[in-house]
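Fold this complex.
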Amino acid sequence: MKKVVKNGLVLLLGEDGWRTEKLDVLIDGNRIARVAPGIPTDGCDVIDAAGKLVMPGLINAHTHVYMTIHRNYADDLAFFEWLDKVQKVEDGMTEEDIYWTTLLGIIEMIRSGTTCFVDMTIKSAQETSGPRSAAAGAVKESGFRAAISRGLAGVSDSEESIMKFGQAVREMEMFKDEERLQFLHGPHAPYSCMPDYLRKLTQSSRERGIGQTIHLSESRGEMESIAADRGGVTPIQYVDSEGEFDIPCLVAHCVYATDEDIALMARKGVSVALCPKSNMKLGNGFAPAQKMLDAGINVCLGTDGAGSNNTLNLFSEMNAAGLVYKGATRQAQNVDAGDVLKMATVNGAKALGREGELGVIAEGALADLILIDLNVPQFIPANNIVSGLVYSATGSEVDTVIVDGKVLMDHGKLTTIDEDRVYEEVRKIAERLTKQ
Ligand SMILES: [Zn+2]
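Structure:
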């Protein structure tokens, strides 16, 4: 049945930036069919949005959702100490564990207004167990939307690398008919992926017509090791020399991107997912965000995993992005609220090659939208809605969430996931893996 989201204040993006208008939104199947005032409701389900903002669902452009198991587990540690501690837990995880911990992350994202995420499952040394397996299975069953990658590392001819590559490809085949799932290749990082493996993944991406996502220039240690091992270049220049930027590429972090790196990524059409909270928490620093925006790079926003954030809440991440790049550069004009909101919506869509389909409320776009309660103190007075979303909102204002035309949260109640069961299962996994 068609749905009409009635009487809401709709957030639109035009040539002059963001604006709001009192409009109705007609949803037919999984698409937005019309955005106009006074849409007739005969024969339609009506979603009353009076007193609410109707806006595009947020897109989390970089995360490892299964890492909810690491929430508040490895804190206040330097980057490589942290990595070592979380990887030991990952080694004990099964595909079933990843399924439940991903569902937990999806609950958290729905409750805080995210409708799509770009995932990298690093852990997965076991055979893909079936259609319920791991992150893709959790996305499929919950009605959510995601772009999934397997984080691949090593040399191309090692037994484990061959097995994991095969697993990634089989997963793409298994879920190829799922419209809400998109796949990317995910070479983990230049320090964990040897050149031959990077080339193999780039070749595979080209053959399959898919993009890639990778961590680059995240820590000072990475900059030093790549410079030492690869002839003095930066991680960004190194992977470009291996052909990685000749296919669509979404790069996470870029904290240490140089001016030359920024020019290179702009020239090659690379998208960057900033993760300001993770970068601060792991003591890595602040990406040159405004320089990237000025260079015309498509800058997106990600939470990274809950092991280094420690939430998957993009409202909290928008708040951080709106503040820290000003503080780090001592320039209050830098990375303004309108840009931050674009990072978490349209820019994320563009990074996935889904411009016009995701991250916007427009006729013909996929019906991924959220309703925000404006009748809360942090939105009163409503002097500037965009500023409110970035500087005042917490994510708790999210009232209703629609993904692919289906209501996944109705006035705060989840419709596709048994929350109590998920909490119970994840607590059991934690007893086994993080509570010894
Ligand atoms: Zn990451």
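The two ends are 50 Å apart (CA to CA).
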